[in-house]
Design a protein that fits this description.
mainly alpha; 0% strand; 13 helices; 333 residues
Length: 333
């Protein structure tokens, strides 16, 4: 069997087998995904870098989970929402239309349920560790139900945004993740109602984590070339735009929390500052690899910055800034 690469034929981004659905077995599909992940990890230079990244992601997951459960009374249910967010990404309609071409109905349903359960498994294991059995039941039921549904993550309707004057990251990102802001704002309101400041801070962190995803993929070279800036000026403008639009999205939560928890205003400003620092780091990391995607060593550095104390950013930001300027010289004269 062989496979081809075409984004239009294969909108899921997965390298499929050519052949009828009878030739494609669920077991073979997961073997293929395992080989793809293993190859991506081993293709690092040196290969140990990829496995170090996987370990760091695992440690970050455990550390953030422990922090969440330590700080929030509603942590198990917030945890369920986070897991559902990740599993829902697998229900994108174009991806599932492609899988339906490759699989008959029964194997397709089996594959989708297994996919979702695999994504939810780390969350289930941690909930078991915390002896949160009711949230586990809720999570498993929702995970299976989502596997039986397909929906668009992009929509034909035009969602108005305040970002039209500065196109690309926020314009595209907001329209594909707008439901995350409803979730974050809802959590902030619940935090005020039940008098849980930590839950309100989590809603603010959720906003910044969503915004960070806007800068993971490099844009087309035309969107950089069209600017009549020097590389340094271009980066400054990108960061200023990110700060301004992030403030638009965070301000409802900051205003609400300031009304109910004015005594904790310093903590809110500190977390907002940290969000801006991580956002700056990710933007510079993105353009330090431009026009390619970030390499595994760069991702490892970013994970280190997220897991370990922020002072490491004092060293990382200038390094990424210098590399970004050199990379952008090719596109900005």
């Amino acid at each position: 069997m062989s496979f081809w690469k075409s984004d239009q034929i294969n909108p899921s981004g997965l390298p499929p087998y050519i052949g009828t659905s009878n030739e494609i077995k669920v077991k073979e599909y997961f073997k293929l995904q395992y080989k793809i992940i293993k190859r991506k990890l081993s293709d690092s230079s040196p290969p140990i870098v990829g496995y170090l990244l996987a370990l760091l992601i695992l440690l970050a997951f455990v550390g953030l989970s422990m922090f969440l459960f330590h700080k929030m009374a509603f942590a198990p249910y917030v945890y369920v929402l986070i897991s559902v967010y990740f599993t829902s990404k697998l229900s994108e309609i174009k991806r599932n239309d492609f899988l339906k071409i490759c699989f008959e109905n029964k194997p397709y349903r089996k594959l989708r349920i297994l996919e979702n359960l695999i994504v939810a498994l780390p969350f289930v294991i941690f909930l078991i560790y915390k002896q949160q059995f009711y949230p586990i039941i809720i999570l498993v039921v929702i995970t299976v139900l989502i596997a039986l549904l397909t929906f668009k993550t992009t929509y034909s309707i035009t969602i108005p945004t305040p970002f039209y004057k500065k196109p690309f990251e926020f314009t595209v990102g907001f329209r594909t993740t707008f439901f995350m802001f409803f979730m974050a704002y809802g959590l902030a309101v619940i935090a005020a109602v039940v008098d849980n400041f930590n839950l309100g801070m989590f809603s603010l962190i959720l906003i910044f984590l969503t915004i960070l995803t806007y800068y993971l993929k490099p844009e087309n070279e035309y969107f950089v070339w069209s600017y009549s800036f020097t590389p340094a000026k271009f980066l400054v403008e990108k960061i200023k735009t990110a700060f301004l639009f992030s403030f638009y999205l965070c301000s409802p939560i900051l205003i609400l929390l300031s009304i109910f928890y004015f005594e904790n205003l310093g903590v809110m400003l500190l977390f907002t500052l940290l969000g801006y620092l991580y956002l700056t780091t990710l933007i510079l990391a993105k353009y330090s690899a431009y026009p390619n995607e970030m390499s595994l060593p760069q991702v490892i550095i970013l994970v280190f910055c997220l897991v370990f104390p922020p002072p490491i950013l004092i060293v990382v930001i200038p390094i990424f800034a210098s590399k970004s300027v050199n990379k952008l010289k090719e596109f900005l004269k």
